[in-house]
Design goal:
By secondary structure, this protein is of the alpha/beta class. It has 2 domains: 2-163, SPOUT methyltransferase, trefoil knot domain (Alpha/beta knot, 3-Layer(aba) Sandwich), CATH 3.40.1280.10; 169-225, tRNA(m1g37)methyltransferase, domain 2 (Trp Operon Repressor, Chain A, Orthogonal Bundle). The chain is built from 10 helices and 9 strands. The protein has helices at residues 14-17, 20-27, 64-74, 97-103, 121-126, 143-154, 163-167, 195-198, 202-220, 222-225; strands at 2-7, 32-37, 50-51, 61-62, 83-94, 108-113, 130-133, 187-188, 191-192. A 5-stranded parallel beta sheet has the order 2-1-6-5-7, sandwiched between helices. The protein has a two-stranded antiparallel sheet with strand order 3-4. Helix 4 (97-103) links the parallel strand 5 (83-94) and strand 6 (108-113). It is elongated.
Length: 226
């Protein structure tokens, strides 16, 4: 997979993309990630990419022209259904594991990170395929959401993680949260591990895990059970 990220702050991506699983995936060439500074496509001597909104109001709005030129420059010559351009915005549809799985099947993913008061609406209307939000809250920009999307997608790419590791986690089956996990020691300060998990009876262990997955979902995310 190839991932292009358009941003005003390329330096923010250095740490997250040069450590852990994403670093390994890049070293194995399972994913290619390229960060593009939007100011490269600015048209004036001040490298401006934003302007005051028509109709008045506080703040600045990202202009359509620099983003149009950026997309024209980095887009593959033949765009197919395996390519998507996504705008990161609190106004978008909320990111889910189902959506992440869809994105992981693409060949090329282009992410646009915003800042300031938002985007010229024509960017939404004419330049993107989807608009995604990572939650019902507002951040200072789209860089952290872009990192979130990349992290969630890359870990699902073939060869990045053991397939079993991603098939039995939260949201992977019927939108349930993962069951509780325990490891050694079996007793710590009187806080023990459920006896079923120590029994060696795999049928009972699977039953316990399913029941407790539902129980945890009911407690923490009852909306998923609906």
């Amino acid at each position: 997979m190839k991932i292009d990220i358009i941003t005003l702050f390329p330096g923010m991506f250095a740490g997250p993309f040069n450590d852990s699983i994403i670093k390994i995936a890049r070293e194995k060439e399972l994913v290619k990630i390229k960060i593009h500074n939007l100011r490269k496509w600015a048209k004036d001597s001040h490298n401006s990419v934003d302007d005051r909104p028509y109709g008045g109001g506080k703040g600045m709005v990202l202009m359509i022209e620099p983003i149009f030129e950026a997309l024209k420059s980095i887009a593959p010559k033949a765009k197919t259904h395996k390519t998507k351009t996504i705008l990161l915005s609190p106004q978008g549809k909320q990111l889910t594991q189902k959506k992440v799985k869809e994105l992981a099947k693409l060949d090329n993913l282009v992410l646009i990170s915003g800042h300031y008061e938002g985007f010229d609406e024509r960017i939404r209307e004419y330049l993107i395929d989807e608009e995604i939000s990572v939650g019902d809250y507002v951040l200072t920009g789209g860089e952290l959401p872009a990192m979130t999307v990349v992290d969630a997608v890359v870990r699902l790419l073939p060869g990045v993680l053991d397939k079993e590791a991603t098939e039995k986690e939260s949201f992977s089956k019927k939108d349930l949260l993962d069951y509780p996990q325990y490891t050694r020691p079996s007793d710590f300060k009187g806080w023990g591990v459920p006896k079923t998990l120590l029994s060696g009876n795999h049928a009972e262990i699977n039953k316990w895990r399913k029941e407790n997955s539902i129980k945890k979902t009911k407690k923490n995310r009852p909306d998923l059970l609906k």
